[in-house]
Amino acid sequence: MKILVTGSTGFIGNYVVEELLRKKHEVIASSANEDAAQKKAWYPKVIYRKLDFRELNFDTDYFNYFDRPDIAIHLAWEGLPRYKEKFHLEENLPRHATFLTNLVQNGLKSLTVAGTCLEYGLQNGCLDEDMAAQPVVPYAIAKNKLREVLQNLQGVYQFSMKWVRLFYMFGRGQNPNSLVSQLDKAIEAGDREFNMSRGDQTRDFLPVEKVADYLVRIALQDSVNGIINCCSNTPVTVKAFVENYLREHKKNIHLNLGYYPYLDYEPMHFWGDDKKLKTITNNE
């Protein structure tokens, strides 16, 4: 199949492109920076089409520009991880809504979009897809509004849409300020102490390779649509996660607990319900 991946040079996009190529699909990779794409191992194996969302042309038929893909996996989103900035609503939302609407109006029949667990807002516990979205930060509000735009579009155009709410992921290539990137930096530097929050908050973690695998498997099927959690359904405290990570790497670093405050836009204890995800993976 011919599959478009936007945000292909990003943390998740890079792994999704590799997974699609591993499955022998034809990949059309897109990003705003072709120089960054050319540094990727997959670059010679894909059709590359540059697209900077700040330069959208309303007269362009993007479905044809991207060689009429069978499926689009939309991972692009600018300005992360600055979750509280208003540009998510004022700039990103209208750009991405316009682009995806353009794809659908011109013939796209299958769309998979990366959402976020932050759409659930401050709700605690096991979060399932039937729960109401209650986002509290501009990034999550914008993502949820984009989902609503696409759902309304389904009332006019016939296409399948999978809205994949991503939980916490980790792996090589992640933002250098992320938890695991900082932990890897401390390990490499031989630090004796690692600054972190108290670590009592419960989260849902997956390695990025597994996230990419799930995203591809979700995109390639049409029996399960709508909101789909991409998660482990395995709650673990951040402290326990860090301790396990250090144990796996055979490192002993003192954890300076309570150095950082808890984030005010995340609940203390939440993880994803994976029943819909398992319906997909168990039926293959």
Structure commentary:
This protein is an alpha/beta fold and 284 residues long. It folds into 2 domains: 2-168 and 206-233 and 272-282, NAD(P)-binding Rossmann-like Domain (Rossmann fold); 172-203 and 234-270, UDP-galactose 4-epimerase, domain 1 (Alpha-Beta Complex). Helix content is 35%, strand content 21%. Strands 3-2-1-4-5-7-12 form a 7-stranded parallel sheet, with helices on both faces. A two-stranded parallel ribbon has the order 6-15. Strands 8-11 form a two-stranded parallel sheet.
The CATH topology name of the largest domain reads Rossmann fold
CATH architecture of the largest domain: 3-Layer(aba) Sandwich
Q: Biggest sheet, open or closed, and with what strands and sense? A: 7 strands, parallel
What gyration radius follows from the Cα positions, in whole Å? 19 Å
